[in-house]
Amino acid sequence: MPPYTTATDFRADLLARATAAQRRAYARYFPGDDTLAGVRMGDVFTLAKSALDLPVDQIELLLEDRVHEVRAGGCSIMGKSATARRVAVERHAELVELFLRRHDRIDTWDLVDLTAYQVLGSWLLDRPRDVLDSLAQAPDWPRRRTAIVATAAFLRRGQVDDTFRLSGVLVDDPEPYVQKGVGWMLRHAGDVEPERLRAFLEDHAATMPRDVLRAAVEKLPPAERKEWLAR
């Protein structure tokens, strides 16, 4: 596969890999979603590796596409490009600007997870993180999920403060996809600083949504996990 320079070429090669069998398989995970063409995500990611230098205006065309896998391709290109070892600061800045400006097209949990920590979180590693607080207060749940999932980039550096702070803001969020993001990040924060997780649980375990609690304590010793769930 030659390096892609246009959204049109990338889209054509992507959709050529669609199958009816894969479209039926997706129906179990995305019920009622008629935007799925039936392209395996492994194929999406492979093609994205050949498009890391795709111009931002062409990535935006992919985000605007109706087909879910085409948008996933745009998100994967953004994430892989932003975290490439030799990514230029200017390129990363363009991707962050696109990500924040067109978050309206990053509107499902999987698209958020392809971009939140790779594009935004990695950008904020050595920068002010106020944007995450703004996202945590957004009216739409994908932006709120982005706020917490972006902190995965910090956890990889052993930084847990933002994860616990934003989890405190979002722990009672009414949207299940945000709740799952909080539980997921709390679990990983507990890998880094288990005592901080226990302190968070002391404050919130009795009232936090059950799914969040179950995810947060998943890696704790079985007896301790049982005790927290009993609360």
UniProtKB/TrEMBL annotation:
Organism: Cellulosimicrobium funkei
Gene3D superfamilies in UniProt: 1.25.10.90
Protein name: DNA alkylation repair protein
InterPro entries for the chain: ARM-type_fold (IPR016024), DNA_alkylation (IPR014825)
SUPFAM superfamilies from the UniProt entry: ARM repeat (SSF48371)
Entry superkingdom: Bacteria
Pfam families named in the record: DNA_alkylation
